[in-house]
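Field reference: sequence -> structure
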Amino acid sequence: MKISDELLGKNVIDGSGDQIGFVEDVVWDFKNNKVESFILKEGGISAKIGLGDKKIVPYEMIETIGDNVLIKGRIFKEE
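Structure field:
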C-alpha cells in the first residue's frame, strides 16, 4: 500500500485540538521523493452541504501522523 493511500481520509487536528478537515490528497515532490504538502477538505456542516473549502498544508506544518494528522498552529493557504 502506498503512503498516500494510508493518509487519505485521515482527520486533521490543529494545534488547539479542533478538527479542521480531512486529507483529500497528498502532493509529492518527485524530484526529492518526499511529501510536499497535504490538500485538506474542510470538515463540519459546510462540507456536508458542499461548501467546504480546500486548504493546503505544507509538510513542515505537520506535527505528527498517527490515527489523526496533527498540525502546528492554524496557518493555511487557500488552494
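Note: DSSP finds two helices and seven strands in the chain.
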